[in-house]
Design brief:
The chain is an all-alpha fold. The chain contains 17 helices and no strands. It has a single domain, classed as ABC transporter involved in vitamin B12 uptake, BtuC.
Length: about 375
């Protein structure tokens, strides 16, 4: 048992569960302060999400909606953890997500491209933004956090300006892809029938899962992954070993940006959402990716489950009693989880210290004297 508890994967899982429980507890306490009467019901509705519906068919359809929004979140999570494994904090993932959104929507609505070129264009847009951050980091020694945050807002207002050319006349939202250019929608490939004919469940689901597995293989089983992680661990040592450290930094952020851009295409090319050309804040998907990455223990496979949980909680916020509470209680819970994820290392160290003390006490415990070892036996 103790050997299993010392396993890094098991410790990461336990730490994540602790963060989730504490996050939900804080959310419940906040609801109690607002109105104690409906607090328990509301926090349960957040947890249940689509299970609050009574009909199984409706539950399945709503589950498909959550799943459709989980895939772009997974891509943002992979973008964060891929860069973090190489020693970089890609907080610019939100801006790269915006760039991907702008690229795929404009290509679909203004140029009439089909789904695959739009998808690739979104990847390229996110990758270009990542390359800018990488170039500034490598050759100008600009911290990637600073340049990433600046580019988030530049991307947002640029996207608002560009996409205003393809918005509806009477509203700030872009036109419906399914009406203007249905060929730009991602194919369902029969997956919609598994979720009560939910048209938003597309090939994005298996594609995202395959990409998560591919990222895990690249980071842990390839020479490229080793070089990237070595560069992140010690840039000077990597340079001494003959690795091209500047190239590796730029390549890392190009890949991370491409993943974020792909995530945007996986959402907007389903037709589930439209871009609002007057929005004044970057989409929360990029920042929720931070929570999903760290909650999943910075593991691509763990990110699959943590991304679904974060999106599940986020969607569950719509089922609280809005007469007394704000649906943003789910965002509060996610924010607390993000904050608590900063203590994951502390939790792991605490677990190891407890196991060490337990082992020391067991070693110091005096052994019972064997039978017949007394004075009478010696005689």
């Amino acid at each position: 048992m103790k050997k299993a508890l010392r396993n890094p994967g098991v410790q990461a899982f336990i730490a994540s569960i602790i963060c989730i429980i504490l996050g939900l507890l804080v959310g419940y306490i906040v609801l109690l302060f607002i109105n104690p009467e409906g607090a328990a019901e509301s926090i349960l509705n957040v947890i249940k999400n689509f299970f609050t519906w009574s009909k199984p068919k409706t539950q399945l359809k709503q589950f498909g909606n959550t799943l459709a929004k989980t895939m772009p979140l997974l891509m943002c999570s992979l973008s964060i953890l891929f860069a973090y494994k190489v020693g970089l904090f890609n907080i610019g993932v939100a801006g790269q997500y915006v760039a991907g959104s702008c690229a795929c929507l404009y290509a679909a609505l203004a140029w009439g491209w089909s789904w695959l070129p739009c998808l690739l264009f979104a990847i390229a847009a996110g990758a270009v933004l990542g390359a800018i951050v990488g170039f500034l980091k490598s050759y100008c020694n600009v911290n990637e956090v600073i340049s990433g945050i600046m580019l988030n807002w530049i991307s947002l207002y640029t996207a608002n300006t560009i996409l205003s050319k393809v918005k509806e006349v009477a509203s700030p939202y872009t036109m419906y892809i399914n009406e203007v250019n249905p060929s730009a929608l991602l194919p369902n490939a029969g997956l919609d029938t598994l979720f009560a004919k939910n048209k938003y469940v597309t090939i994005a689901v298996p594609l995202a899962l395959l990409i998560a597995i591919a990222v895990s293989i690249v980071l842990n089983k390839t020479r490229l992954g080793y070089e990237l992680k070595a560069t992140g661990s010690n840039k000077n040592a990597a340079k001494y070993a003959g690795m091209r450290e500047n190239r590796n930094i730029i390549l890392t952020l190009v890949i991370a940006g491409g993943l974020a851009g792909l995530g945007a295409a996986m959402l907007y090319q389903t037709g589930y959402m439209r871009w609002e050309c007057t929005q004044s804040s970057v989409p929360s998907m990029g920042f929720n990716g931070i929570a999903a990455a760290f909650l999943g223990g910075l593991s691509p496979i763990g990110a699959i489950f943590s991304s679904f949980f974060i999106q599940h909680i986020t969607d569950g916020g719509q089922y609280v009693n809005t007469n007394f509470y704000s649906s943003q209680i789910s965002d509060l819970i996610s924010s607390v989880i993000i904050y608590l994820c900063g203590f994951v290392l502390f939790i792991k160290i605490t677990m190891n210290n407890i196991l060490d003390r337990s082992g020391e006490k067991k070693m110091q415990k005096p052994k019972a004297a064997p039978a017949g070892s007394g004075k009478d036996g010696d005689k």
